[in-house]
Amino acid sequence: MSGRGTFRSLESPRSRLVFPLDVPDAKSALALARELGGRAGFLKVGLELFVACGPGLLADLRAAAPESGIFLDLKLHDIPATVGRAMEAAARLGVDLATVHAQGGPAMMREAAERSGAAVVLGVTVLTSLDPADLGELSPENRSPGAYAALLAGRALAAGCGGLVCSSLETKNLRALGGPGPLLVTPGIRPAWSQVGGDDQKRVGTVGDALRTGADLLVVGRPIRDAPSPAEAADRVLGEIESALAEIKNQG
Q1: What is the DSSP string of 125-156?
Q2: Plot region of 154 (φ>0 → left; ψ -120 to 50 → alpha; else → beta)
Q3: DSSP state, 24?
Q4: Cβ atoms within 10 Å of 160's Cβ, excluding its own
Q5: Active site residue 27
Q6: Angle CA 121–175–150, to nearest 5
Q7: Can you state the angle between helices 145-158 and 106-114, rounded to 10 degrees?
Q8: Catalytic residue among 44, 75, 172, 249
Q9: Where are the alpha helices (DSSP H) in the chain?
Q10: What letter does residue 93 receive in the DSSP assignment?
C-alpha cells in the first residue's frame, strides 16, 4: 500500500496535525474530539483508551468529529497470523492509520500490510521515550537510535508498510531512505512556545524541525491537552505549522 496521498491531502496545516486522545475514559475523549475535531486532521487512539473503552469508541469518535481521521495506535507486535487478523479487524472498524512495531519482523509487517484494507499501516521504528542509553541495553549491536531506526524502517518499507513512525531526529535520513512516498509520522513534537514539565519523551523536536526534515504528520499531545484552552493551543500549533510550511515553500 502506498503512503502519502492514499487517504487525504496534506495541503492544509490542519491535515498535518495529529492529536492523541491520551485520556482514561470515553467521556473525556469525546469532549476533546468535539473541541478539536475541526482542528486536528487525525484523532489518535492509543492502547490505554482502546483497552478502557473498546472498539465501539471509534464509531462514537467518528460521529463526534467527522472532519478528523481515526489513527489507531496499538503498535501491534505478535506472530504474523495474529497481527494479520488484528489488522483485518481494525480495517473493518474503518480506521485510517494503524501501527505495528517494526521490531516484529518482515513477515509480521507484511501480513499486516496485506490485510489492512484501506488503512495505511505505519511501522513504528524507535520509540521517542528511548535514548541512546536505553537502546544500548536493548540492542546487542549497540546501534544508535538513528541507525536502528533506519534498519527497522528499511524492513518496514520492504514489507509493504505505507509509512513510518519516527522522531524528528530521524526524519531527514528516513525521508532520504524511503523517498517521497512513505508517510512519515513524528511524535514528541513540542511547539516552540511550549515547555512540558516531567516529559517522558526523550527525543523530541519542534514543529519546524520535523517539517523541514520531511515529516508529514505531527503528533502534538500534552501542549494542547494540558492547556487552559485546548482549542486555543491547537490554533497556535496550526499557526506554527502554517508558518513552517510557508517557509519551506519559499525556500523551495
Answers
A1: -S-TT--HHHHHHH-TT---HHHHHHHHHHHH
A2: alpha
A3: S
A4: 18
A5: no
A6: 75
A7: 50
A8: 75
A9: 13-16, 26-36, 47-53, 56-64, 80-92, 106-114, 132-138, 145-158, 171-178, 207-212, 222-225, 230-251
A10: T
Q: What cell was used for 186? A: 513524528
CA distance 189 to 135: 21
The structural domains of the chain, ordered by start, are: 13-251 (3.20.20.70)
Helix axes 80-92, 106-114, angle to 10 degrees: 30
Q: pLDDT (tens digit, 0 to 9) for every residue of the chain, 252 residues total?
A: 444 444 457 889 999 999 999 999 999 999 999 999 999 999 999 999 999 999 999 999 999 999 999 999 999 999 999 999 999 999 999 999 999 999 999 999 999 999 999 999 999 998 766 565 655 555 556 567 788 899 999 999 999 999 999 999 999 999 999 999 999 999 989 887 765 555 445 557 899 999 999 999 999 999 999 999 999 999 999 999 999 999 998 986
